[in-house]
Amino acid sequence: MVRLDNGLIDLSLSVSQVEIALRDYAYSPQFGLEKLRLALLSMPKNMDLNTSNNAYHDRFSSFLDAVDELLASGSPYSECYHTAFFSAADALFQVAIGSQFGSDRTLQLDHLLSLERSCWVAILSLPDEKAHSPMYVDYEARLVEISASTDPISVDVYLEALSSSGRVSFQLDAIKGAYLEGRFLLTSVQSLSWLQARFPLLQWQQVSDNNEKESLKELCKLNFLPLFQNMSLKRDYRYRLLGLFEGRLKTLLYQMFGSLFSADLSNVEQRDRFVPESQNVISFERDADVAYFPVRHGGLVYVGSESIRGGGQKLSYQACLGHDFLSYFLYEIDTSFGRFVFDQAECLGFYVVSEKDLFVLGDDIWLGVEGAVKAQVVLDMPFLSSNDTAYCIFPRYIEQVLVVKQGGLYFAVPYFTLDEIEGICSQMQAPHSWVKNIWLNPHNIPLLEPCLVSVDGSSLEYGWREENKPTHPSKNGYYFGRVCGRMFCIKAELVSALLPYQSPFSLTFFDGGEQKLASFIIHDGYCFDKVVSKIFLDGLLIMSHEVPVFSVILECMGESVVLPFTTCDWRASLPSGECVREFSLPPKLIGGGDEVSLYSSMQDDIIVIDKKNYLSFVAGVWPSSSLA
User: Fold this and answer.
1) Nearest to 386 by CA among 508, 503, 504
2) Neighbours of 266 (CB within 10 A)
3) For the chain, what is the mean pLDDT?
4) Which residues contact residue 389 at a Cβ distance below 8 angstroms, ignoring those fewer than 6 apart?
5) Which domains does the chain have, with CATH numbers?
């Protein structure tokens, strides 16, 4: 590259900087391109060029645009562009230096800026060939026979070098004596040939096909619910799309329930039912004296089990298979406890009955249907789905029942009216023993399915092993908001969603004979039931006279909380002054004068919630928070 000048314009530093940047581009593309851009911009802007010849300015701008295009595309290395950049930079420097010797010399160098030269053809074609969105590819690089004793930082050195080319991690496969064996997993925009040349001691291969399959899975999962609830589409077109997505989901994410068991095990029910395909190996001891069947609870599908020998044992869950994303046809019935839904596939049917069809067995009333099937008549529900007071129906007034099968047992549920609807099951972070599922209809209205069978509470912990929701982009700073007259300062990384205020749905459930209130909201197919609601903080809301404007969902370490913000603001840092990091809210606020005055006496202090005290905050608001 040209270096000489006549001293009138000193370009030696710029020449050196460009040469160094282009050399770095071959080894660390992004770092090299960033240095090249700065070097070009640092060239003197007061060159005495012939203003009637705009070719120089046009080529200089095209050069910068090409560098920006590669940076926007993730900084992939290209030998073609590398060579073009060398030639283009040399041409620009020669013209800049030659311009000092007059217009005749400038005209002699005009051919260096000709659009017919290969370097300018390549640079000008770059915006048309490269997309702004980086095209990432997954690679695997195997590391073999690296000494673990004599060179303990070899893996770290590779990690540092590979990190400049993309997102990288290392998986250790084995330690064989003094040697380590493992794999580097790299997601990068660089080509396989560049990686092989840059790191020749690693055994490289591209694994993009697997990445494409995972991307297709995510595409189908994320689109099914929005499509199901898009009622603006024409009916036939919407159902065709749903059918295509359902077919893909079943192929990619589902399996037959019977595939989890050997063919000779006779005590497996619903073998042909589609259930989510677990990402982990399902390991539990198969027992010939235990009946196995699929159970959907809290939006998750479990391997349910009950002893064939009876003995009054509770339904237990052996393993969690995953989230059920598909839609199903439901029966919605109106009862004396409110409106409920049941999956049609889990119903034997609906029947017209009279008092003479019922019989007493022990302390319960039963109904005989379809030969040997005996169904217990349900006269008491685990919760109320409305604010109306429930009333008991005497057997002589029972006229219609829906026979439901849960956990291998049949139940006859009396009803007044029955409708057929479609729904998708929301996912609950922690399944409860009193509500089996909360479904969503096409208008995103929740539909409640009660849990009629007794479930072993300890087995509900399997629900926490479901894969995490997609990670949210990193957030900085703090969100400031008022909750019942009190200022909260919440670390932004805890906030997964900031929504217009959603009035929570409420219901009453029974726990040991005591009535308790539960509230929840629905967002993106997920059910959040730790909600600070108007009823939950009724006394404080009356005191503050504030109306919630935002619903803020906090998520961290497996716990989710919904707060009602009356105001909301973002700041880069904590304010100066006193902040409170320890917070305990008594579980029963309504009517507790001393407790409310304790809250109001600290109105001037700001409550800070971050990762360090988040779980303490959740435990302070919900002292009895548990999975069951």
Assistant:
1) 508
2) 8
3) 81
4) none
5) 12-129 (no CATH), 137-206 (3.30.70), 327-465 (no CATH), 478-621 (no CATH)
Q: Is 533 left (phi over 0), alpha (psi -120 to 50) or beta?
A: beta
What element of type H or E holds 383?
strand 383-384
Q: Taking the CB of residue 552, how many other CB atoms lie within 10 A of it?
A: 24
User: Looking at residue 217, what is its pLDDT?
Assistant: 85
Q: Is 385 exposed, middle or buried (CB count within 10 Å of its CB: 0-12, 13-18, 19+)?
A: buried
What percent helix, strand, coil does the chain show, rounded to 5?
30, 35, 35
pTM, whole model, 2 decimals?
0.65
CA angle 519–339–341, rounded 5-degree value? 95
pLDDT band, very low/low/confident/very high, at 95 (cuts 50, 70, 90): confident
Q: Is a pLDDT exceeding 60 seen at residue 553?
A: yes
Type of residue numbered 547: V
Per-residue model confidence as pLDDT tens digits over 343-399: 999 999 999 998 889 999 988 999 998 778 999 999 888 888 876 667 778 888 899
Other CB atoms within 10 Å distance of the CB of residue 51: 7
Give dist(CA 94, CA 106) in Å, integer.
Answer: 9
**Residue 297 tokens, joined:** 């609870």
Per-residue DSSP letter, 612 = T
- Which tokens is 609 given? 């919630």
Handedness of CA 534, 540, 541, 542 (dihedral sign): positive
Contacts 24+ apart (CB under 8 A), 224-231: 224/249, 224/325, 224/326, 224/327, 224/424, 225/325, 225/424, 225/440, 225/524, 225/525, 228/327, 228/422, 228/424, 228/442, 229/440, 229/442, 229/443, 229/444, 231/442, 231/443
Q: Are strands 373-377 and 409-414 parallel, antiparallel or unpaired?
A: parallel
Choose among 524, 549, 532: nearest CA to 472.
524
